[in-house]
Amino acid sequence: MTSERYASPLLGWIMWGLVANLYLVGFFQRVAPAVMVDELMVDFQMGAAVLGNLSAAYFYAYAAMQIPSGMLADAIGPRRLSTLAALIASAGIFIFALSNHLWLAYLGRLLIGASVAVAFVACMKLAGHWFPTNRFATITGVALLLGNLGGVLAGIPLAESIAMFGWRTSMFVSGLVTLAGAILIWIVVRDDPSERGYTSFAYAKTADEKTVTAREALKKVITNRGTWLLFFAGGLSAAPLLVFAGLWGVPYLTQTYGIERSQAAGLTSTMLLAWAAGGPTLGAISDRLKRRKLPYLFANITAATLWGIFLFVSIPLPLLYPLFAAIGFASGGLIIGFAFAREVNHPAVAGTVGGVVNMSILGFAALLQPLLGYILDQRWDGTLLGGIPSYGADAYFAAFSWLFGCALLSVVALLPAPETKCQMAENNNN
Asked: How much helix, strand and coil, in percent to the nearest 5, is found in the chain?
């Protein structure tokens, strides 16, 4: 009988971290347009609605790739998938940075969104081979922190870089970093510790679950009522934060409060940092309480209330920091939703349900971004500042009412969801 020889945790973190870097890149590219709104409007001579669609192109492609991502990770492995994705992402970033026509900018954003969409799934699959099962909560939390670090880098650091070098040069450099990441993944990363002479944690797992085909798994998931309740609860709770911090928050703050772009980016970054902290914290509370619905519902009600305060109360600038931090933290409750959705379904379809629910997180944001842009354009009074459309407080109020409405609907969607008490469903007859 051969003795088990596991790889050191450091080696596992290196393997996982190189792939997780693609998740950071994806988050960076997701929110980057927020600090280059003025430049994009001038370069492509477009209004808010078109800008919303350009930014949302990333979200459309990302959402569409969620289910195929799991299948591709199983078919070709996370190393090949992540390398290919990073290469395509870098190509998309280069196209976007060098585009002199709007359709090329759209193409670049679509390629970026479609490619980085595989990052989270690839990370989790790799983690299943390089780490024991009881480390998954920690790894998921670190993934969220890395992603939000990318969002923070797309705030003040990117705003300062754009001010110094321009948005095209800044984006081009980010493409070079992504290309270097693809090369490192291919050279260093291996799908399984056995390729380095170590014992795989994947082999130590018990295989007591019924094996189902991808088609059967998808059918089980989409015919389960609980899946859809959590699909809408997650997507509608995440969309307001992603849309505000990812695009419309910076122009709103600069135009309404008269502050510099870097300071506005710092405010939206506060929301993202708190989101990064809220996810692992609320997830741990849910685990400790052995309840899913109660803490998730409390988080969503809190977030909806805070969005209402933002919308209906005149907030002094200094108080926006704690308000945005509280909104971000409460919005982190969506992490509970992934475990919740997994538990209301059969154990054998856990991967598929993760892809379906994750699709909603960016899917709703993709629909909301251009909608808000359309509303702003419709209520624009024709005011231009430096050749850039300036929207009044009334226009922003009408647009941001949708953020509050989505937050409220996330609460409504969650109310009928069944409590799982952190137990996996053994049968799914829905």
From this structure: 80, 0, 20
Report the top-level CATH class of 212-430. Answer: mainly alpha
CATH superfamily, with its number, for domain 8-192: MFS general substrate transporter like domains (1.20.1250.20)
> Which tokens sit at 201?
């944690």
Structure tokens at 11: 């080696």
Cβ within 8 Å of residue 197, ≥6 positions away: 5
**From residue 423, how far is each of 6, 339, 356, 426 by CA, in Å?**
29, 10, 20, 9
Q: Which residues contact 351 (CB under 8 A, 6 or more apart)?
A: 70, 121, 217
Q: Given this model, what pLDDT does residue 372 score?
A: 92
The whole-angstrom distance between residue 360's C-alpha and the CA centroid of its chain comes to: 10
Which amino acid type is present at position 401? S
Q: What is the pTM of this model?
A: 0.76
**Which residues make Cβ contacts (< 8 Å) with residue 43, sequence separation at least 6?**
none
Provide the 10 A C-beta neighbour count for residue 371. Answer: 17
Domains 8-192 and 212-430 share a fold: yes
pLDDT confidence bin for 429, thresholds 50/70/90: very low
Task: Break the chain into its structural domains and give their ranges.
Answer: 8-192, 212-430
Q: What is the DSSP string of 335-391?
A: HHHHHHHHHTS-GGGHHHHHHHHHHHHHHHHHHHHHHHHHHHHHT--S-EETTEE--
Rounded-to-integer distance, Cα 53 and Cα 58, Å: 9
